[in-house]
Amino acid sequence: MAGMASTVQHPVHHPVHPLTVGFDLDMTLVDSRPGIAAAYRVLVAETGVPIDIDLVVSRLGPPLEAELAHWFPAAEVPAAADLYRAAYPDHAIAPSTALAGARESVAAVRALGGRAIVVTAKNEPHAKLHLAYLGIDPDTVIGSLWAEAKGEALREQGAQVYVGDHTGDVRGARVAGALSLGVTTGPCDAAELRTAGADVVLEDLTGFPAWLAAFEADRAA
């Protein structure tokens, strides 16, 4: 009858949260080993302290100060870190390269209408220098965070996925309640990443765009 409220029940569509994908930087998006080695060579020259640079670049992931503690007394680590960071822009950016699939992976997030963020233990200014030099343009860069601390930032950003090469990255994803996707381009192999709790492991980022398209289709469904 006219004037009566409709009793037709319309289906309720629950909104899907916008796609947000976090990426680690060193050995996930960027092969920074040549650049980091160059900065360490400057540090050795300036301090006279012998450092096994090959060993250093074989285990990238944890914060700079954690690595320097292997080579300097605790009281000298802050000054050594300052020297290293002062050398970094001039010596570490140009030699470093984008890893296979890095640009395409960030672009794939964007193509799906999502946000690509970088959450890294590297300090933010140097992370941004690497990305700008290599033409990788994430929406947000958050630096100076490691392992579980990455998880806090990922949660604040609403990330559903965190992509990294280290077991510390897996721990960060876990804290955030995000899916952990590991790549074996860094110091940790597939078995280590899976043991740490990675949900998905890829050899490198070249397979990431196809994986992400399937993930987003499942999420939309």
From TrEMBL:
Keywords: Hydrolase. GO terms for molecular function: hydrolase activity. Pfam families: HAD (PF12710). This is Hydrolase. The keyword Transferase does not apply. The keyword Membrane does not apply. It comes from Streptomyces globisporus.
